[in-house]
Amino acid sequence: MHAISKELSPVNGCNGIEVLEADTFELHCFQALTGMAQKIFVAAEPGTPGIDSLLKTVYELYTDYVLKNPFYEVEMPIRCELWDLNLALAVRRDGKTGLTGR
């Protein structure tokens, strides 16, 4: 979806979809400036504050607990207890503002 939107955009220099807004939810997408292949998505209720901050927090957790894990291979499922724990804490912390999941 992200790559297709870059190709179909009538705007030159488009970086792809950042937010997909629907009546009942918003789907936010984060791609690091480093151009990492993985995208981070968060689904939230419309108008939920702090999503950008949460996306950056999740990216920081990803770099700290996944990319630095010598046993992790890109494109493989993430199996790291510290990642799971810290991701759940970050979502719970922001869950008070209306997040619908991780």
TrEMBL record:
Keywords noted in UniProt: Endoplasmic reticulum, ER-Golgi transport, Golgi apparatus, Transport
Any one Gene Ontology cellular component term annotated for this protein: endoplasmic reticulum
Compartments, as annotated in UniProt: Endoplasmic reticulum; Golgi apparatus, cis-Golgi network; Golgi apparatus
SMART domains given in the database record: Sybindin (SM01399)
Principal subcellular localisation of the protein: endoplasmic reticulum
One GO BP annotation of this record: endoplasmic reticulum to Golgi vesicle-mediated transport
Family annotation (CDD domains): TRAPPC4_synbindin (cd14856)
Keyword Endoplasmic reticulum: yes
InterPro entries registered for this protein in UniProt: Longin-like_dom_sf, TRAPPC
Subunit structure: Part of the multisubunit transport protein particle (TRAPP) complex.
Family: Belongs to the TRAPP small subunits family. TRAPPC4 subfamily.
Protein name listed in UniProt: Trafficking protein particle complex subunit
Species the sequence originates in: Physcomitrium patens (Spreading-leaved earth moss)
